[in-house]
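A favour, since you know our structure tokens better than I do. What I am after is a single protein written out in full by you. Could you add the entry underneath, on a fresh line?


***
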Amino acid sequence: MVCFPAPSVAVIREEGSNGDREMAASLHMAGFQVWDVTMQDLLDGHVTVDRFRGAIFPGGFSFADVLGSAKGWAASFLRHPQLRRQMDAFAKRPDTFSLGVCNGCQLLSLLGWVGGSESPEKLDVVLDHNDSERFECRFSTVRIEDSKAIMLKGMAGSVFGVWVAHGEGRFSTRTDAVLKGLESGRCVALRYTDEDGQPTQEYPLNPNGSVAALAGICSADGRHLAMMPHPERCTKMWQWPWAPPSWSETVQVSPWLRMLRNAFTWCIDSA
């Protein structure tokens, strides 16, 4: 029997990140070899991303959102020529993937890794302030769409709960054509839904007012996934405030773990 080494992934955190430990634990559950990497490690050259198969950007409030959500974090990448070249090379490698959650989702949009942007200087998709003008922390319901996202393979049509916690999570597109392009290109990964599993703009079912109920999008090749909800905060069933009564006897592990297992399987299959 041939044994493959566990794929290595980097959980990259910045000052103010607070979802890194839950993310690392969930990735470990999925089988990955997980590295805790700070931005200072990258800036100082102590660690380079070329050694990893996955780059994971967790949630939180980098630089306390003083400059706007993830804008200071993105500047650390974009204004450092060597690191920018390193990250661009990582993003373009066909054997890598990335996941940005909440603050990390905002980051991937600013970097231009998702959203069909030609460059970070001309963003087609941005994350704006919630319509409620409040920080929203709740257990929302989302539907996984039929997208190219490698991490959501085999999960299309699933509807279940997930934690959200953000103040700037409203997906907005520069033009209607951008939204249509995301939809026709199968880059819409998740949507907020009502009790019937249908996309909704109704608050608080849609916690931020995102256009077309968007909760997550992926890159055109499906390797990069950006989502505002926090799957790492509910990979075990005890982390769920509610689940269908029938699940108590049949569901031992949260269905959100499958998206991380999908990434693990993809890494093994594409090695």
Notes: The chain has a mean pLDDT of 95.
